[in-house]
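Course assignment 3, question 2. Fill in each field.
Student: A.L.
Task: Predict the tertiary structure for the chain below.
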Amino acid sequence: MGSILPLTIESSKVAVYGLSTEGYKIASHISNKGIPVSIIDDSSGMAITLKPDIAKTYSSVTSFIQDETLLDFEPFDVAINNASFIFFSPRIRKSWPDARNHIVSKFQDVIKHVSKDSSIIYTVPAGFGVNNENITLIEHRTGLSVGKNIFYHYMPTSSISSSLFDAIIGTRTELNSNFASMLSGLYSDKTMKVVDIESAEYIYCIRILRHYGLMSPIFEICKFADNNFQHQNTETESFDEMYLDDLVGGLFDLNTILSSLTGISPLTLLLKGNIATVENYIKHLTEQIKIILKKYELKASKTKAIISWTFDPNEMRGDRLEIISRLESRLKDYVGDVERQDSMFDFYSSEKKLIVVSCSKTDFQRLTKNNPNSEIIILKATPLLGQSNIQP
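Answer field:
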């Protein structure tokens, strides 16, 4: 183990690189503890001072962004240079394999401005060996030695792991007590498990694959099921509670693990199979639209398809944005008029026959609660979407 940072919490300054939902959650949590925080908009390169009153005023990054012109700014390199702790939580909007180079480029922008004795906390999910590559890059670019006069921690953030698993942090050194205090309470009712960096990578990868190991087979097998499939009588899982939104949630994580591997192995095939499940399901979903058009004798010119998918546009991962674009493109092969919506309140006024694809549990509940028009065809983007989930 290396030495412990000689800092007090009062003297600590924090910079969070990335105006993402995950980054803002970290920044506002730390700011509320009275620690000076700057959050960096990685698209503009400017750092915004996040004071406790501001963090309490803006509960989400979305509301924060809307009024950011009213806040105090400083150059991001100054904020990083003055920070004792730098969290790396960028918004990633590139697809694989371009995403990897995009992340590395942003990370290089950060580390060239870090100071001696500072700590870098990498919150992007990483595959095998990626953190060691980051450490090598830090030492090469700064001339400092990780674990001695600069520090590195791996704290992957995921919508999957944060809801189902204890948080983990990988490190080569003992955690500074001030750093641990700073993070306490970040994940309510959950403890932060501290392990070495390699173990953190393994644990995180196992969690992601375990999650998909339960879900992907259901989506794949249900494509072959007919209306007589009585899963409710034999299985405890509620297949109708799994949506496309759940299937896409860890797609970035699968890709980042796969990109860290070389050659063909059972593990790479497992990862590729789970990734393929997403594409296979989109294809299956759009084919069901074609079947619906034929079943109800609907003309493409007289029909409008609506993708109802409510999600956070500022989350670190951009997978949902990518998948909704691919789904929209595929639907246009069968229905010329395709629209994205996250609200269903006025759809019944359309002159065209509406087919609504509900991509999350939230969207389906909102639609069925607020839609008075029984003429709308609702298709739930669940494993059994083509069976009993249509309301003619």
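Instructor remarks: The chain has 14 helices and 13 strands. Residues 1-7, 387-392 have pLDDT under 50 and may be disordered.
Grade: pending
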